[in-house]
Specification:
The chain is of the alpha/beta class and 279 residues long. It is built from eleven helices and six strands. A hairpin with a 2-residue loop joins β2 and β3. α1 crosses α2, α9 packs antiparallel against α10 and α10 crosses α11. The two termini are 37 Å apart. The relative contact order is 0.13.
Length: 279
């Protein structure tokens, strides 16, 4: 089988493809939110740019942040399980939700905020590939508010056989595909949006612009891995546990303030700052 060099899970490709082909983004979002496409009256991508200087940052995220019919929707693809993914998405949600309140406005004006995660690992101890979480009372299951939502799609749990009429599984199969044969199997179903998405995939991966963006992204990942290795070595010498080093790294990736990281880990602000410089 011909292994794909880049897949729909490649964060740079994911961002470029769906930002530049917003007809596909509308269809994907409708399927993931399980709403009719025609019900989407507004979809605005709030972070459409992939600036080259951003790719060189150590803690760069390539999510797609949107306003969809007045709701805040953050769409993420995550390949590796770094051990704290639920906490990470809750932090992203909290930051997004709290920043939506304008000065002087009532709390009731805060928008429904949903983080959608397409993940290439098993996160929950269940057979279902789809999980949706909201804030519920633990015995009566009364909904506290519909303004909090977390959707997870676990690619590792997709069924082997997929019906061409199942739009959700078709889209998720595109993200799961790791070989040319898997992409061509989906194309052979002759579903128009799948053919359009696969054609867009080949167009983008063949472009020099994408190759340069991916080169910068790969360099940033390599630099980060090297920095983490050195931080671990020096952290051991300074008596900082491996776990705290990982927590600091992940918290920095989420944009958490140094003071909050210090409280979380029990380290001093100076120790956190020293680790930050090493990453």
């Amino acid at each position: 089988m011909s292994k794909l060099q880049y897949t729909f899970k490649t964060d740079t490709l994911f961002k470029m493809l769906f930002v530049r082909n917003q007809d596909l983004l509308w269809k994907l979002v409708a399927v993931l939110l399980r709403i009719p496409l025609e019900s989407i009256q507004e979809l605005v991508v709030r972070n459409p740019e992939i600036a080259p200087e951003m790719l060189g940052e150590k803690f760069c995220r390539l999510d797609i942040n949107m306003i969809v019919n007045g709701q805040c929707i953050d769409l993420e693809v995550q390949v590796a399980n770094e051990g704290d993914y639920p906490e990470r998405v809750m932090y992203y949600w909290a930051r997004e939700f709290s920043s939506s309140l304008a000065t002087g406005e009532s709390y009731s004006t805060l928008p429904r905020t949903i983080v959608i995660s397409i993940i290439d690992f098993s996160l929950f101890n269940c057979t279902e590939y789809y999980s949706f979480f909201q804030a519920l009372e633990v015995t009566r299951h009364t909904l506290l508010s519909d303004k909090m939502g977390f959707q997870f799609f676990e690619l590792t749990k997709l069924p082997g056989n997929i019906d061409e009429k199942d739009s959700l599984l078709l889209w998720l199969s595109l993200f799961k595909a790791n070989t040319e044969e898997e992409l061509e199997k989906i194309r052979a179903m002759e579903v128009p949006e799948m053919e359009e998405a696969i054609n867009a995939y080949y167009t983008i991966t063949a472009s020099s612009e994408f190759r340069e963006i991916e080169r910068l992204r790969a360099k940033a990942r390599h630099d980060e891995a090297q920095a983490l290795h050195h931080a671990r070595q020096e952290g051991r010498q300074e008596g900082i546990s491996e776990r705290n080093i990982e927590i600091v790294r992940n918290a920095l990736q989420m944009g958490m303030p140094i003071e909050d990281i210090a409280k979380l880990t029990g380290l001093t602000c100076e120790e956190v700052e020293n680790l930050r410089k090493k990453f």
